[in-house]
Amino acid sequence: MMSLLITANRYQDASLSIAAKHLSFFFNMSLLLKLLLASGLSLLSTAASAAELKAGLGYIPSLAEKNGSGPFVDLFKAIAKVYPEARIQIQVLPFARSIRNIELGLQDFHAPMMVSPYVDQEKLPYRFVKKPMGQVCHVLYSRKNAELNREQVFSAASHTAYPYRIEVIRGTKEFFNFPFPIAEATYFEEGMNSVIKGQTDAFIAAQEEGDAILRRLPGKEQIHRSLLACWDDQIVIPKGPHGDEIDRILTAALNRLESSGQLKKLRKKIHGSYSDWQTGVTATTLPAPKKNNQADHHP
Fold it and tell me: What are the pLDDT digits (tens) for 259-278?
């Protein structure tokens, strides 16, 4: 009888031991599942907190090429690198389409965009990042035998009939919104050649883009260059709370680039200060551009 009791007790002990092991196994599995779940939720939370931003760069020959190369592309790659909290997808698009994507909510920001003092920003369907990337100088290209300067083209705006025929590149007219009549040329070469042939009186373009064309153009010796104005070079973002968040992200990234000295180096490859390479006059010897809020509205 005693033997049977011992055997029964051993059996009971073994059963309890097995049950304990099973409970321990399920407890450990439950703990493991909880840890995995917590880890997964943490990863999802991290992924959700990292902003996914779509950037559009307007196609500009030599600065933002269709194949995704150029100094502007390098600048935005640097922005993405110094701000790992956001993942930025960069695409080079036709200028007008990139702007339109902002308005339609298909894109988070666009660059570049110079900020003209003649545009009422409140009426725009988008806004700008508070911190400019830098400045872009615009040049007035006229004929050497009929030179024009900025004082002439702006003061003549008060005339009953504007005496000059001036062009800008197609798609930028509304962004300048000059207080005088402006026509548009499809290509930089077209705008320059119209001046050379006497078909127009002047062509306005950003210095680097315009000079790149002028330097290789037959008849370039007939062109006179003069500074029109230098304005902020900005990033376009949507209006509203989403735009506010993008503004915060891009401003922080630009500040990081600036404090490290990278922004200045990158900008030198895009837009520099005005340089009159035809005569050797630099921006320091030119009259300072008038403030945007002056009554006469000259640049």
Answer: 999 999 999 999 888 988 87
Contacts of 83 (CB under 8 A, 6+ apart): 249, 252, 253, 256
Any residues with CB less than 8 A from the CB of 297 and at least 6 apart, and which?
A: 117, 118, 154, 179
Answer for the pair 56, 93: CB distance below 8 angstroms, yes or no. Answer: yes
189-228 pLDDT, tens digit each = 999 999 999 999 999 999 988 998 898 899 899 999 999 9
The pTM (predicted TM-score) of the whole model is: 0.69
Task: Please choose, from the candidates 99, 88, 81, 80, the residue with its C-alpha nearest in 3D space to the C-alpha of residue 53.
Answer: 88
Q: Which domains does the chain have, with CATH numbers?
A: 50-272 (3.40.190.290)
- HEC sequence for the chain: CHHHHHHHHHHHHHHHHHHHHHHHHHHHHHHHHHHHHHHHHHHHHHHHHCEEEEEEEECECCCECCCCCCHHHHHHHHHHHHCCCEEEEEEEECHHHHHHHHHHCCCCEEEEEECCCCCCHHHCCCEECCCCCEEEEEEEEEECCECCCHHHHHHHHHCCCCCCCEEEECCCHHHHCCCCCCEEECCHHHHHHHHHCCCCCEEEEEHHHHHHHHCCCCCHHHEEEEEEEEEEEEEEECCCHHHHHHHHHHHHHHHHHHHHCHHHHHHHCCCCCCEECCCCEEHHHCCCCCCCCCCCCCC
